[in-house]
């Protein structure tokens, strides 16, 4: 059974930093692209970032480029999101998500077949 | 990257059919066959309903179908049931090597 378990959310002041983690199990982790998708309270889904199975290809949404960094440790089956210079508008539930396409060398960006339960990040003074 | 355009809300009675549109550009929806649809119930994570424009994952009811014409993709739900009431999102691969979501559509089953 595929499981994605996020952690690291919480309350942080504007300008602060936070690191989210997502522990994965139930599939060959290094063969799949992984993503972070967020959802502000009462709002829609926003794609944040993605990383290929190998970790060699990375992409970011315009709103977080230069502030957020995605990475993965395939030996620990874990994907991370380092968030710097946080703003009030970054307040959201952050979901870890897995692509359905089996390709270790490609940032697939096809379809998300599994989602974590989400972790809430609140940016407020 | 601008969000894909979806109607804010749609509604239908049990047993009826509804269609949700998702409009993008030639740089996303129109340029690639990588459009997906997700269902999200309140307080829950999204669920994949359709991938690659028309493919229905195992376990998803055949009442859900989808298509694409030009820069617009569509999700059709036939034989509406109360459990279909949820938010629905489309997404697409983009030419910038990102994913973009639609703004979401709230489906109300009357």
How many β-strand runs of chain B?
Answer: 9
Instruction: Give the overall form of chain B.
Output: globular
- The chain-level structural class of chain B is mainly beta
SS strand fraction of chain A:
over 45%
The low-confidence runs of chain B, each spanning 5 or more residues with pLDDT under 50, are none
What structural class should be given to the helix and strand makeup of chain A? Answer: mainly beta
This entry's quaternary arrangement is heterodimer
**Secondary-structure element pattern of chain A, one letter each:** EEEEEEEEEEE
Figure out the total of helices of chain B: 0
Which two protein chains have the largest interface (Cβ within 8 Å of the partner's Cβ), and how many residues from each? A-B, 23 and 27 residues
The largest β sheet of chain B comes out as:
6 strands, mixed
Taking the alpha carbons of the first and last residues of chain B, their distance comes to: 35 Å
Element layout with pairings:
The complex is a heterodimer of chains A (125) and B (110).
Chain A: E1 3-7, E2 10-12, E3 18-25, E4 32-39, E5 45-51, E6 58-60, E7 68-73, E8 78-83, E9 92-102, E10 112-115, E11 119-123
Parallel strand pairs in A: 2-11
Antiparallel strand pairs in A: 1-3, 3-8, 4-5, 4-9, 5-6, 7-8, 9-10, 9-11
Chain B: E1 9-12, E2 18-23, E3 35-40, E4 47-50, E5 64-69, E6 72-77, E7 86-93, E8 99-101, E9 105-109
Parallel strand pairs in B: 1-9
Antiparallel strand pairs in B: 2-6, 3-4, 3-7, 5-6, 7-8, 7-9
Structural features, described:
The complex is a heterodimer of chains A (125) and B (110). Chain A has 125 residues and is an all-beta fold. Chain A has strands at 3-7, 10-12, 18-25, 32-39, 45-51, 58-60, 68-73, 78-83, 92-102, 112-115, 119-123. Helices cover 0% and strands 53% of the residues of chain A. The mean pLDDT of chain A is 97. The model of chain B has no long low-confidence stretch (mean pLDDT 97). Chains A and B meet through strand 5 and strand 10 of A and strand 3, strand 7 and strand 8 of B.
């Amino acid at each position: 059974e595929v499981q994605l378990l996020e952690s690291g959310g919480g309350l942080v002041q504007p300008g602060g930093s936070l690191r989210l983690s997502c522990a994965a199990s139930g599939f060959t982790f290094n063969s799949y692209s992984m993503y972070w998708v967020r959802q502000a309270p009462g709002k829609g889904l926003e794609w944040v970032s993605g990383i290929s199975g190998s970790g060699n290809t990375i992409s970011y949404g315009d709103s977080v480029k230069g502030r957020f960094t995605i990475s993965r440790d395939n030996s620990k089956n874990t994907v991370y999101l380092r968030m710097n210079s946080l703003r009030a508008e970054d307040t959201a539930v952050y979901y870890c998500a897995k692509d359905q396409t089996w390709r270790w060398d490609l940032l697939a960006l096809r379809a998300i077949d599994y989602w974590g339960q989400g972790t809430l990040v609140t940016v407020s003074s | 990257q601008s969000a894909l355009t979806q109607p804010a809300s749609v509604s239908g009675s049990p047993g009826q059919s509804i269609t949700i549109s998702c409009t993008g550009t030639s740089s996303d929806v129109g340029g690639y066959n990588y459009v997906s649809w997700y269902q999200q119930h309140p307080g829950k994570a999204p669920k994949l309903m359709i991938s690659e424009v028309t493919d229905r994952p195992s376990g998803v009811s055949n009442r859900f179908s989808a298509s694409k014409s030009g820069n617009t993709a569509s999700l059709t739900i036939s034989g509406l049931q109360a459990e279909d009431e949820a938010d629905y999102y489309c997404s697409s691969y983009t030419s910038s090597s990102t994913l973009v979501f639609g703004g979401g559509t709230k489906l109300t089953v009357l």
